[in-house]
């Protein structure tokens, strides 16, 4: 399924020229037009899924297998020192284009773009941790 109004559907279909580094029947991997680092690329499914919640498990599994394949290749060919896989879901989490995509971001020691992903850990009581555990635990 495609969305005619979605720019990432057009990119994935090849309707808009891209620097494609990989393509199969399910995905197109393109170099990010505004890269954070050398080699920053995006895995984009050819079918439209607004986010991870809408994606079926088979396609999600294929996305992760492809991410591993691309990360290994980028590590080998670009000689990066680390690697981020980034996938945002919904605006609060930083999603700006509402077509599932996964960022492949090679990281290099001493790179001037040192905005390594980080967060400030919460301090939760044992009771709060137990309450959250009870809500999300898969039984």
Automatic annotation (TrEMBL):
- Motif Histidine triad motif positions after renumbering to this chain: 99-103
Question: Which SUPFAM superfamilies does the record associate with it?
Answer: HIT-like
Q: Which residues form the active site?
A: 101 (tele-amp-histidine intermediate)
Q: Name one GO molecular function term.
A: catalytic activity
What Gene3D superfamilies does its record include? HIT-like
Q: Write down the Pfam families for this protein, in alphabetical order.
A: HIT
GO BP, one annotated term? nucleotide metabolic process
Taking every annotated instance into account, which residue ranges of this chain make up the domain HIT? Answer: 7-114
Record's PROSITE patterns?
A: HIT_1 (PS00892), HIT_2 (PS51084)
Protein name as annotated: HIT family protein
* Lineage of origin: Bacteria, Bacillati, Bacillota, Clostridia, Lachnospirales
């Amino acid at each position: 399924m495609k969305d005619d109004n979605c720019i990432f559907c057009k990119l994935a279909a090849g309707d808009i020229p891209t620097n494609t580094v990989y393509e199969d029947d399910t995905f197109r991997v393109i170099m990010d037009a505004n890269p954070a680092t050398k080699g920053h690329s995006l895995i984009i499914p050819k079918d439209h899924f607004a986010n991870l919640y809408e994606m079926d498990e088979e396609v999600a599994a294929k996305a992760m297998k492809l991410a591993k394949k691309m990360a290994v290749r980028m590590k080998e060919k670009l000689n990066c020192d680390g690697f981020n896989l980034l996938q945002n879901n919904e605006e609060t989490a930083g999603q700006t284009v509402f077509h599932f995509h996964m960022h492949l971001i090679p990281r290099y020691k001493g790179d001037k773009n040192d905005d390594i992903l980080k967060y400030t850990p919460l301090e939760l009581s044992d009771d709060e941790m137990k309450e959250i555990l009870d809500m999300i635990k898969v039984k």
